[in-house]
């Protein structure tokens, strides 16, 4: 099986980004949305992005024109998928909406066409089972912005054929990205399973220790090797995204996340982070702004509870056959920007110290914190 023609359904930030990345790699791309005005806006953004790369001398004017000409915007669904070999669906993260889209798509697309959903949290198997081709259905989770982020999570559903998984991994490689395979369709896949619960845990850490946001963030940045603090990262990601992922993941597995009321409260109050001017921190304007963090502030906070949380979830992924240490480290480096391997940080802090901390938290705050058997075996 070879793929040359791709249809991207949805022309928002992720959709037009994936279309651009695919066209850059030489694929013929149809970009489809429900209104012409959405497509016009998306094509404008692609043009702006390509022009910027020409200005920076990353590509030539001819290359930019070639990439742009390989993307065809189309509103009519039947027309949009008539030559497609693979459809990458990038509609909003609402299960009913996705199912509705796939009901239409399943009728419109030829039976041999592969369906790939760019979901970050929704169950692949459940969506796949609403189509007539669950064996040709796969999760392909690009990170935002797709033009810059190297990581793509590939998630087979329960019925996905092995050749489709391999073909998708090859596709990811062909568009100059790095694939990380999440072997089981688990809530949050790999990155969100580590990142989203940690945002909640940071809120609990603040409650339990009275540390300031800046102290916690400094510890995360300088002691744990994150590129920015966890609250800063949450503001950058957007509380709407985090709240949505929280609800989805918690719905599917109560053990994955211990929701802190602050996240929902901020979402309800429209404190969405940088995009709204206020999240955990306040931002003065729409330019990319960084919080003042320092090694002095880092010394005032012990981030062991956060390490314990992220490590326990990583161990769960391994114990449950969804991933392994090597793939998790690759995902953390590319998806979270970790400067130091997670398990290396854990060894420096001491696996025994982490397990003791989890046992202590479990006694005080319940079963959620029970250490994964893998961590106990690593002592």
Automatic annotation (TrEMBL):
The keyword Cell membrane does not apply. One of its GO terms (molecular function) is NAD+ binding. One of its GO terms (biological process) is fatty acid metabolic process. Residues 188-283, 306-378 form the 3-hydroxyacyl-CoA dehydrogenase C-terminal domain. Residues 5-185 form the 3-hydroxyacyl-CoA dehydrogenase NAD binding domain. Keywords: Oxidoreductase. It comes from the Archaea. InterPro entries: 3-OHacyl-CoA_DH_NAD-bd (IPR006176), 3HC_DH_C (IPR006108), 6-PGluconate_DH-like_C_sf (IPR008927), 6PGD_dom2 (IPR013328), NAD(P)-bd_dom_sf (IPR036291). This is 3-hydroxyacyl-CoA dehydrogenase. It comes from Candidatus Nitrosopelagicus brevis.
């Amino acid at each position: 099986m070879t793929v040359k023609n791709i249809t991207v359904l949805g022309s928002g930030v992720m959709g037009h980004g994936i279309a651009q990345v695919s066209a850059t790699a030489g694929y013929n791309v149809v970009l489809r949305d429900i209104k012409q005005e959405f497509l016009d806006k998306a094509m404008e953004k692609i043009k702006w992005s390509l022009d910027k790369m020409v200005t920076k001398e990353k590509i030539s004017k001819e290359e930019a024109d070639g990439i742009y000409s390989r993307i065809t915007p189309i509103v009519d669904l039947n027309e949009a998928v008539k030559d497609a070999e693979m459809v990458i669906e990038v509609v909003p993260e609402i299960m009913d909406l996705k199912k509705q889209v796939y009901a239409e798509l399943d009728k419109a697309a030829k039976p041999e066409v592969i369906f790939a959903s760019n979901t970050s949290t929704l169950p692949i198997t459940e969506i796949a089972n609403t189509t007539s081709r669950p064996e040709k259905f796969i999760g392909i989770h690009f990170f935002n912005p797709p033009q810059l982020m190297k990581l793509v999570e590939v998630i087979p559903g329960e019925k996905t054929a092995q050749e489709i998984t391999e073909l998708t991994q090859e596709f990811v490689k062909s568009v100059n990205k790095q694939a990380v395979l999440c072997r089981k369709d688990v809530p949050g896949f790999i990155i969100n399973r580590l990142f989203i619960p940690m945002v909640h845990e940071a809120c609990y850490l603040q409650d339990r220790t009275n540390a300031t946001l800046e102290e916690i963030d400094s510890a995360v940045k300088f002691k744990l090797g994150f590129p920015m603090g966890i609250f800063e990262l949450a503001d950058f990601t957007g509380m709407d995204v985090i709240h949505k992922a929280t609800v989805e993941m918690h719905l599917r597995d109560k053990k994955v996340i211990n929701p802190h009321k602050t996240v929902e409260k901020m979402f309800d109050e429209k404190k969405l982070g940088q995009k709204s001017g206020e999240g955990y921190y306040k931002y003065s304007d729409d330019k990319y702004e960084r919080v003042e963090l320092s090694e002095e502030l880092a010394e005032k906070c012990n981030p062991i509870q956060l390490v314990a949380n992220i490590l326990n979830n990583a161990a769960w992924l391994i114990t449950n056959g969804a991933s392994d240490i090597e793939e998790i480290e690759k995902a953390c480096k590319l998806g979270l920007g970790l400067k130091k391997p997670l398990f290396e940080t854990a060894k420096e802090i001491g696996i025994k110290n982490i397990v003791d901390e989890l046992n202590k938290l479990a006694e005080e705050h319940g079963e959620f914190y029970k250490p994964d058997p893998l961590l106990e075996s690593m002592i």
